[in-house]
Every structure is written in C-alpha cells, then in structure tokens.
Design goal:
Elements (H helix, E strand, L loop, with lengths): L1 E6 L2 E3 L5 E9 L6 E7 L6 E7 L5 E3 L7 E6 L4 E6 L8 E9 L2 E4 L3 E5 L2
Parallel strand pairs: 2-11
Antiparallel strand pairs: 1-3, 3-8, 4-5, 4-9, 5-6, 7-8, 9-10, 9-11
Length: 116
C-alpha cells in the first residue's frame, strides 16, 4: 500500500507562484509515474502534469505548459509542482497521483485559490 501526502496549497494573487509537494510512503518501489491532477466543483478531475519516475520525462496539459513545472526527488519519493504566473482559472483542488502499474494512488488534495 502507498500513502500520498500533499502540501503547499494556499491563496495567491493572479501572476503569483506556489509550489506543491507530494511525498509517497509505503511500498514505493517500482513506481511508474507521479504527477498532478486538479478538480473544480461540478467538473471532472483533469490532468495537469506527470513525470516518469525512472527517466524523468515530463508531460503537461496544454493549459499549464510554460507556466507549471513538475519535478521529482527519487531519494525522497517526492514530486513537486512549481506553478508560476497563476491565473484565476487555476483555482482548484490539486491531487497528487502515483501510478504503480496497475494501480493508481491518490492524495487527499490541496486547495489552490487564485484571487485578487
């Protein structure tokens, strides 16, 4: 079993920055990918970014390309999401995701609010 603990959410003004962190604990060998999704009320959870755990390849949703950066620290079993130039539409609950084939694991979510 794997447990994911997120941190770093909060309130920020448009154009500001936040950095999310997610630590994985438990059976953390053979991780395939870690990444981030987000969800707003009444909408489905959507993909934000992911990173391949061994090779470090990264993938982003078009809506965040050039503004968000996903990275990892394998030694700490931690994935990060650096969010720059935040927009009002980035407001959401952000969920950490870990894929250990064939199972997806999810964190409890952290609120990010972009507001002036």
């Amino acid at each position: 079993q794997i447990h994911l603990t997120e941190s770093g959410g909060g309130l920020v003004q448009p154009g500001g920055s936040l950095k999310l962190s997610c630590v994985a604990s438990g059976s953390t060998w053979a991780i395939s990918t870690m990444g981030w999704y987000r969800q707003t009320p009444g909408k489905e959870r959507e993909f934000v970014a992911t990173i391949n755990w061994s090779g470090g390849n990264t993938y982003y949703a078009d809506s965040v390309k050039g503004r968000f950066t996903v990275s990892r620290d394998n030694t700490k079993n931690t994935v990060y999401l650096q969010m720059d130039n935040l927009k009002l539409e980035d407001t959401a609950v952000y969920y950490c995701n870990l894929l250990k084939i064939p199972v997806n694991y999810w964190g409890q979510g952290t609120q990010v609010t972009v507001s002036s």
